[in-house]
Write a structure and sequence with these properties.
about 140 residues; 4 helices; about 40% strand; alpha+beta; Nuclear Transport Factor 2, Chain: A; single chain
C-alpha cells in the first residue's frame, strides 16, 4: 500500500514541476484539505486550482532534491525538497517582485485514501524567503 502512496505523491510533484495543474488535481480527492504555509485551509479541488493559478502568476518554481516517504499502511506520506524559484509578480503583503530568484528548503505532508490525496500540508521558512527576495 505504501508504494501506491509514494507513487501518488511522486505523480503529484512531477505534475507540479511540469506546471500541469490538471494532473495535480487528478491526484487529489474532491474534498481535499489544502493547508497552506502561513495561510488558511482551502477545501476542495476548486479552491486548490485557484491557489495554483495564483501561484503560477506570481512564482515560477521547480522542486529538486526530492525525498518521499510513506507509512506502511499508505495513509500518510511526507516529502522533503528544495524549492528553486523566481518571483515573477508581486504577491499581496510581500516584497515587490522584480524577477528575484530564491532557493528554499521545504516539506509537505499528505493524507491519502483510496489512492487519492485527501490532505496537503506545506511548510517552508517564510522569513528566509523574504530575506532572499529582499536582498536580491
Amino acid at each position: 500500500m505504501s508504494d501506491t502512496a509514494q507513487a501518488t505523491v511522486q505523480r503529484y510533484f512531477e505534475a507540479f514541476n511540469a506546471g500541469n495543474t490538471d494532473a495535480m488535481l487528478a491526484c487529489l480527492s474532491d474534498d481535499v484539505a489544502h493547508h497552506v504555509n502561513e495561510g488558511n485551509i482551502r477545501q476542495g479541488k476548486a479552491a486548490f486550482a485557484e491557489f495554483c493559478a495564483h501561484m503560477s502568476r506570481c512564482y515560477q518554481e521547480n522542486l529538486t532534491d526530492m525525498v518521499i516517504m510513506a507509512s506502511a499502511d499508505g495513509t500518510r506520506a511526507a516529502a522533503e525538497y528544495v524549492v528553486n524559484g523566481t518571483y515573477l509578480h508581486t504577491d499581496a503583503g510581500l516584497p515587490q517582485a522584480h524577477g528575484q530568484t530564491y532557493r528554499l528548503p521545504a516539506g509537505s505532508f499528505f493524507s491519502l485514501e483510496n489512492g487519492q490525496i485527501t490532505r496537503v500540508v506545506t511548510y517552508y521558512n517564510l522569513s528566509d524567503w523574504v530575506a532572499q527576495v529582499s536582498a536580491a
